[in-house]
Amino acid sequence: MTYGYPRKWLEGLTTGESIAAEIRLGIVSGAITTDTLLTENQVAKQFNVSRSPVRDAFKLLQTDQLIHLERMGAQVLPFGEQEKREMYDLRLMLESFAFSRLKDQDTQTIAKEMKKQLEMMKVSVQFEDAEAFTKHDFEFHEVMIFASNHQYLKTFWNHLKPVMESLILLSMRHRMDTNKQDFERIHRNHQVFIDAIEQYDSEKLREAFHLNFDDVGKDIEGFWLR
């Protein structure tokens, strides 16, 4: 049994990372419920592997704070609305800090790369490919993260990425199935990000944060680095 993790995203991953990716998506989607006890034998049988990669997967999921390792196995921790809000809170802080590091950089080149990712997002919608859209959406935001040239920022972003990627993938799949026209709004909102970077306009970036995150979190002003 799998939980819908994109098969093409598994390319290049170790067996342990692949198992963790599937279980992570199951937990984030709610298919694997809070307090479920996952055992090495059970998961090894489910994925037709030995127990060693399962142990590797459990370590990754514990790092994500999705499970708690116990003597008898791994207990699934709560992942509800509060946890999702906290994930977006952290993402807002990382992205606003990244922007603060761009003042003396070539923002035109950064914006150009973001434009390229936005165009690929639009193509993904045309082909109703939520998986490709999610990938390009992440790459859109990572342009600013990586341009910050701040090693610890990149480390924290990469730590956040696996769970956030699952959240966004599930959201985009649902939107693609039920409200495809809403992607026009998403594209416009991402254009505001690009305009903010091109002009290095903090007020416009604040607007972009509101447009993109008001539906998932509050207190955006509290995270803005002045």
Describe the protein's architecture and organization.
- This protein is mainly α and 226 residues long.
- 67% of the residues lie in helices and 4% in strands.
- The protein is built from nine helices and three strands.
- It has helices at 15-29, 40-47, 51-63, 81-100, 107-126, 130-147, 151-178, 183-199, 202-213, and strands spanning 37-38, 67-70, 73-76.
- A three-stranded antiparallel β-sheet has the order 1-3-2.
- Helix 4 (81-100) packs antiparallel against helix 9 (202-213).
- It is globular, with a radius of gyration of 19 Å.
Largest sheet: 3 strands, antiparallel
The count of DSSP E runs of length 2 or more, i.e. the number of strands, is 3
Low-confidence stretches: 217-226
* H/E element sequence: HEHHEEHHHHHH
| Silhouette | globular
Tell me the Rg in angstroms.
19 Å
Structural class: mainly alpha
| Widest sheet, order of strands | 1-3-2
Tell me, rounded to a whole number, the average pLDDT: 92
- The number of distinct helices, counting runs of at least 4 residues, comes to 9
Distance between the termini: 48 Å
Q: Helix content range of the residues, please? A: 55-70%
Beta-strand percent range: under 5%
